[in-house]
Amino acid sequence: MTAAAEGASSARVHRRMLGLLLGALGLVVFSALSLLLGSRSVAVPDVIAGLTTWPATDIAQAAVQTRIPRTVLGLIVGASLALAGAVLQGATRNPLADPALLGVSNGAALAVVVGIAVAGAGTAASHVPWALGGAAAASVVVYGIASLGREGATPLKLALAGAATSATLYSLLSGVLLSRTDVLDEFRFWQVGGIGGTGFGEMLPVLPVLLLGAVLAFASARGLDALALGDDVARGLGSRTWIARAVAGLAAVLLCGTATAIAGPIGFLGLTMPHLARMFTGPDHRWLLPYSAVLGAGLLLAADVLGRLVARPGDIEVGIMTAVLGAPVFIAIVRRRRVREL
């Protein structure tokens, strides 16, 4: 490598590191806004007192302390869903791949409904095993259908199989809900997608699962870069494509299934954030994955804060707000034709 090429590579790394640093600072800002704003706005001294004084001694401090778990959950869920979308797009080489399109979200949702109806799973922690099982089963079914035929699981066949499976799962989901109105009453609030009302006691048991999913996602970066060149080239370079896809798929199932279990199905993050990150990082998954996680966490917190402000003294669930914010972003990306670059 020439000195000029080395200098350009070093400058590119520095720019990407600076971008990650700015993204982290943005998360700090959004986290602060999440603690400050809501049905009752508080001042900065109240936030500091709420973080340092336990238990709370006044209403403002109590408001801050109820928003802390919501803020942490927003960061975790946003990063998890964006990571899941990024690894799915890389593994399938499909720019429209996300947990919703490939049936992973509906598989998790159907399994959670069955868990509520059959086993009385009424808490976020009890939803997790059901959601993971449903997400994994849906992924296996989609990949199995797409693998039929001589060409194997091509990006187009994966998208078609995922859309068909997702529609089937949604029909089964509707059938269960129509036959069990008691389950419908509990499910309809979870289905919208929200991060309010969940405490640290419900979050802590699922953190190891999300951490494992994140580790697998980042470990799959090199394999996803090889897959981007095409299966034949990847195999020629010594990459075991089936292992790369298996690791990426397992990461997506763990991240999406667990995030869906604790927050409900939240759309657009897994589809939009990887494309937005790709505008800054290019196709290199070593940078694309952390950028996607940071952008996903930031958008979810921003959507949650905005949902609290526009509907005071109530709030609009974050699942609705992410669609409102995510759709224009995705349309803008498509117009720039960056959606084609994987």
Automatic annotation (TrEMBL):
The keyword Transport applies. The chain crosses the membrane at residues 67-88, 100-122, 128-146, 158-179, 199-221, 242-268, 288-306, 318-335. InterPro entries: ABC_BtuC-like, ABC_transptr_permease_BtuC. Keywords: Cell membrane, Membrane, Transmembrane, Transmembrane helix, Transport. It is a multi-pass membrane protein. It is found in: Cell membrane. Belongs to the binding-protein-dependent transport system permease family. FecCD subfamily. This is ABC transporter permease. It comes from Naasia aerilata.
